[in-house]
Amino acid sequence: MPWDVYLAGEIHSDWRERIAAGAKEAGLDVVFTAPVTDHGASDDVGIAILGEESEGFWKDHKGAGVNAIRTQTLIRQADVVVVRFGDKYKQWNAAFDAGQAAALGTPLITLHPPEHDHALKEVDRAALAVAREPEQIVAILRYAIEGRL
Amino acid sequence: MPWDVYLAGEIHSDWRERIAAGAKEAGLDVVFTAPVTDHGASDDVGIAILGEESEGFWKDHKGAGVNAIRTQTLIRQADVVVVRFGDKYKQWNAAFDAGQAAALGTPLITLHPPEHDHALKEVDRAALAVAREPEQIVAILRYAIEGRL
Amino acid sequence: MPWDVYLAGEIHSDWRERIAAGAKEAGLDVVFTAPVTDHGASDDVGIAILGEESEGFWKDHKGAGVNAIRTQTLIRQADVVVVRFGDKYKQWNAAFDAGQAAALGTPLITLHPPEHDHALKEVDRAALAVAREPEQIVAILRYAIEGRL
Amino acid sequence: MPWDVYLAGEIHSDWRERIAAGAKEAGLDVVFTAPVTDHGASDDVGIAILGEESEGFWKDHKGAGVNAIRTQTLIRQADVVVVRFGDKYKQWNAAFDAGQAAALGTPLITLHPPEHDHALKEVDRAALAVAREPEQIVAILRYAIEGRL
Amino acid sequence: MPWDVYLAGEIHSDWRERIAAGAKEAGLDVVFTAPVTDHGASDDVGIAILGEESEGFWKDHKGAGVNAIRTQTLIRQADVVVVRFGDKYKQWNAAFDAGQAAALGTPLITLHPPEHDHALKEVDRAALAVAREPEQIVAILRYAIEGRL
Amino acid sequence: MPWDVYLAGEIHSDWRERIAAGAKEAGLDVVFTAPVTDHGASDDVGIAILGEESEGFWKDHKGAGVNAIRTQTLIRQADVVVVRFGDKYKQWNAAFDAGQAAALGTPLITLHPPEHDHALKEVDRAALAVAREPEQIVAILRYAIEGRL
Amino acid sequence: MPWDVYLAGEIHSDWRERIAAGAKEAGLDVVFTAPVTDHGASDDVGIAILGEESEGFWKDHKGAGVNAIRTQTLIRQADVVVVRFGDKYKQWNAAFDAGQAAALGTPLITLHPPEHDHALKEVDRAALAVAREPEQIVAILRYAIEGRL
Amino acid sequence: MPWDVYLAGEIHSDWRERIAAGAKEAGLDVVFTAPVTDHGASDDVGIAILGEESEGFWKDHKGAGVNAIRTQTLIRQADVVVVRFGDKYKQWNAAFDAGQAAALGTPLITLHPPEHDHALKEVDRAALAVAREPEQIVAILRYAIEGRL
Q1: Mind telling me how many Å the CA of H117 is from chain A's nearest CA?
Q2: Inter-chain touch F128–B65, beta carbons under 8 Å
Q3: pLDDT of residue C90
Q4: CA dihedral H131, H137, H139, H141 (to 10 degrees)
Q5: Among the partner residues F45, F62, F65, nearest to H149 by beta-carbon distance
Q6: Neighbours of C114 (CB within 10 A)
């Protein structure tokens, strides 16, 4: 049975693609899942499907609900959760996903540059590995799944 | 792996068929489950299989037990629970199913016309989306499963 | 340690008072909890505390959220949940509370007149007792807590 | 029994004091808990108790571990979790705590100014109330605990 | 905090009294709970409170429901479950209680004469101790609670 | 996905074969599991694999342990548990299995003749159906799985 | 409410006394629990209460069962589990207790000299703090409970 | 569906190979999983993938984290956990894995020579079988999976 790995967090760089490409090249038996990474679709999904809202707060609320149907289901199914923190935006939802994984007892890996180490110390403490590059995630998954360095 | 979506509630309109048709047309990888929607069979199943009862209360009790073997199993297996509230009948069992989904932490979607909004406010608050038409359910599932609007 | 009994459902009759009076007279070691039974306060609490809304749906949504902070906490702490279904209104939230109790494995007692038996058969099947009068609830609690008829 | 309310997040303003003062004035039966809010102590606790580290990452790691002994215990005991997001810092640990509360099914209230609404939409969607001022938190707790506006 | 010990099973001998007397003499900080041991009350409680039934099956069913409100609550609260199997009757409910304790992970002690060893081997395997006399139960509790032989 | 149905209890009649034959004839998508029904193997397995014992109690203990590796795994995987009580033997392990299913929240069906109704009232109360003949079990499964009488 | 801290592991040095003395001096609101630390009593309890055994294996088995009634109950009630690994004996039961705490999600602290670091790396990884001296445990508890260094 | 059996513990003898060979010869439908048994890889994986460390403690810590991603996932998926204790090394991680299995309620089998019986009495008490040779594990699995001696 393939491993189910949820890739949470940053949606403005190619880190998911690099992990997927590396895993494919390594021939790993893994299925990657993720939130919707099309920023516009993710923001608009609530009103696009369920109807317009005059206030931004409720537009966001509706959209976040629909997104959560996807993300909650995938996070609960995941064997491993990888959370990427990038340079842009507040990315509170990335940390929120990490908190869910921690409370569920699902192995957690964080991926971020050293400049965020201090701000992320609580999240990193709950993680089983702190990686800097997507290729390290591939190496970790290869080791975890196939048992070889 | 297909998503498992339980369609709870109203059994006197074609909302399940419209969702199933829409999902098929959209090519979604989803398995729909539901309670037995043949009203007569659902009412009579207890005495039909387990023997007559002289009192209505125990006839209902027996039938509800057999139905629960099906519904409890399917609700617990579901990735998403959709609950439809219609105009006829009290539909307390629809709200009861919604309460189970909420307590299990399973994503919940409600489907009902605006005139029930006030009466359903507690149930809707526990839901991740409140839809008006079956086609919106299809759109939500497409987004949740395939990640596209 | 006193038993914690949550009294869910109908807020337009004196059934809670009758149970409380009976339990007091019987000297039972029990703490009763309940949702806010002031209908107006319950409807308005969201906008009263968190600010006005122009649409009824979001007014209800805000209010239901604040009410849920109280009801979810109390339902989860309860040793026994009693749910009253009356003649007025849809009372879907009563059935919703019953569904939560059932999924949590908390002993459930329903209280309603016989004319709702058929509509409530699924909820009654999940209950350990179906009572008609508040005084029967007191007798059940006395038996459960003190072990005497 | 008093309600147990965990106040997570921002440690650079007086919001906790305002909530505590308001709850005291209102005579609420509530116990507030919180992470250690002395920033220096929180940062240094690992090396102060368990010995020096030459690298910042491991200093943080040690400290975050000791802090988690406190915060994990208190979050798991809480009846309600309030999470404050302020203007300074990344506050990923606030969102991380919110994720834990959500996964545990503990009622969650967020407290933040409107300018963070969009960035916090996923966290707010999982919350039962979104407040702007500490006094609103007091009002919510009074309503939840005592059932009066 | 006192230990909560549920004494399940046989109601036709004085084993509960012997355990209670021994624990009192030893000064143990323990609260004993039990099903209703008045056989007549236990059999009749359903119809006595909730109304007559013409068929024995439903009379039993009603009574078992009311008894379960007591027993399920007490079993779930217990720190330790002791189950006594005697010579009379089938005592399937004793084994049923033992199965619940085992599934809940609650420490289980059985109390029965050697002639039932073979018939009870599955239940005994799930137990942490198999005792022959009530006085051994007292000795086990003294050791478990106070740490002395 | 086929339904997983565990058939617990009596091993001295052909009830399992009758259910299996009926389910096959009805074309049900179901996998039946069961304890080892070879009485001699079940009794001897402990010493046969793990070495002789001089005392009957420990022979039983060893055997019950090995049997539990099978039965605990299968009971936890089951969607539905059917428990048969027959005329011979004490069958406490059947009631023990029923208690585990009840505590796990797995739908439970009992199968026994009316003469055991009073002795089994607690177990039957926890069951969703009480059947008299194996063919009724087949009819219940057909209804639960395929939704037709 | 006092914190409940279980002190697992080594029973041949005075580390528990040093922690208790330090906590008392610091005035901490904490209750310490522990396995029975009288080695002889712990070894003999099974046969002393439940009867002689001719084979050492079953003597140990009986004793370990009675000890587990105490230790399982206390570990499950603990807010924090401290595990001490000393120089003598294999102390597999200390690591076994640590594994239980980890699986239960209870904060874990280990206490051992550096020479065991490599052998204990898996256990230490699951711990939130690795201490060398009992006084460090006191300092950690003071920080966790009272929030001061 | 094949049974999932996790083989924990000793990595310096051929016991896993003997079990795998025996299971293959017996044609059992079983998937064996295990920690990484290449001692060097297991020790170095942290620094090999995530970067050098100057101190042994943190090198071990990093490595143990990456190993835990594999072992935690596999232990949680296992139907049965077998733990081997050998003569060399402290093998605290073997006992740690056993503690996790016990707390998760997963059937546990231990495999060790009689000279460790006394030191392992707590772990053995939590196990459903104590085997001496790998071939006994194969026989137990054949019995548990196929129901034949």
Answers
A1: 32
A2: yes
A3: 79
A4: 130
A5: F45
A6: 10
Q: Do chains F and D touch (3 or more CB pairs under 8 A)?
A: no
Per-residue pLDDT band for C127 (boundaries 50, 70, 90) equals: very high
Spell out the residues 6+ positions from residue B31 whose beta carbon is closer than 8 angstroms to its own. Answer: B2, B3, B4, B5
Bridge partners of D110?
A: D83, D130
Instruction: In whole angstroms, give the CA distance from residue C70 to residue E30.
Output: 33
pLDDT band with cut points at 50, 70 and 90 for residue G90: confident
Q: Are F149 and B45 a contacting pair at CB < 8 A?
A: yes
In angstroms, the Cα distances linking E68 to A39, C144, E76 are 53, 8, 11
* ipTM of this complex prediction, to 2 decimal places: 0.96
Q: Residue C79 corresponds to which tokens in the numbers above?
A: 């040793």
Closest by Cα among H73, H68, H71, H66 to H45: H66
When pLDDT is cut at 50, 70 and 90, the band that residue B130 belongs to is very high
Which tokens belong to A140? 């970790």
Query: In percent, how much of chain C has pLDDT > 90?
Result: 94
Say which DSSP state F26 is in: T
Do D66 and G144 make contact, defined as CB atoms within 8 angstroms? Answer: yes
Instruction: Give the strands of the sheet with G129-131, arranged side by side.
Output: G30-33, G3-9, G80-84, G108-111, G129-131
Q: B35 CA to chain F: closest CA distance, Å?
A: 8
Query: To 10 degrees, the CA torsion angle through C119, C124, C126, C131?
Result: 160
Determine A/F contact with 3+ CB pairs under 8 A as the test. no
Burial of C115 (0-12, 13-18, 19+ CB in 10 A): exposed
Residues of G in contact with E144 (CB under 8 A): 66, 69-70, 73
- Which residue on chain D is closest to A106 by alpha carbon? D103
CB-count exposure of residue F90 (10 Å: 0-12, 13-18, 19+): middle
Collapsed DSSP state (helix, strand, coil) of residue G94: helix
Instruction: Identify whether the C-beta of residue C73 lies closer than 8 Å to the C-beta of residue D77.
Output: no
The DSSP output letter for C118 is T
Q: How far is CA H9 from CA D18, E6, G119, H108, H110, in A?
A: 54, 38, 13, 13, 10
Residue F10 has pLDDT above 90, yes or no: yes
Secondary structure (H, E, C), chain A: CCEEEEEEECCCCCHHHHHHHHHHHHCCCEEEECCCCCHHHHHHHHHHHHCCCCCHHHHHHHHHHHHHHHHHHHHHHCCEEEEECCCCCCCHHHHHHHHHHHHHCCCEEEECCHHHCCCCHHHHHHCCEEECCHHHHHHHHHHHHHCCC
Q: Which of A51, A115, F97 is nearest to B133 (CA)?
A: A51
Residue corresponding to tokens 């064996």: H32
Mark yes or no for CB contact C100/B103 under 8 Å. Answer: yes
Do chains B and A touch by CB distance (3+ pairs < 8 Å)?
yes
Neighbour count for residue D53 (Cβ, 10 Å): 18
Q: What single-letter DSSP state applies at residue F97?
A: H
Q: Which of C128, C147, C149 lies nearest to residue E48, judging by beta carbons?
A: C149
Q: For the sheet with E3-9, list strands across it.
A: E30-33, E3-9, E80-84, E108-111, E129-131
Q: What is the mean pLDDT of residues F53-80?
A: 98
Q: Are C149 and E41 in contact (CB under 8 A)?
A: yes
Instruction: Give the amino acid at E108.
Output: L
Assign A141 a pLDDT band (cuts: 50, 70, 90).
Answer: very high
Calculate the alpha carbon distances from E88 to B80, B96, E117 in Å.
49, 42, 15
Selecting from D105, D125, D128 the residue whose C-beta is nearest the C-beta of B105 gives D105
Facing residue for G65 by CB, picked from E129, E145, E148: E129
Q: Give me the mean pLDDT over the C34-51 stretch.
A: 97
User: Are C99 and B102 in contact (CB < 8 Å)?
Assistant: yes
Q: Which residue of B has its CA nearest to F4?
A: B73
For residue F80, the surrounding DSSP H or E stretch is strand F80-84
Whether E96 has a pLDDT exceeding 90, the answer reads yes
Vertex G14: Cα angle to G11 and G18 (nearest 5): 130
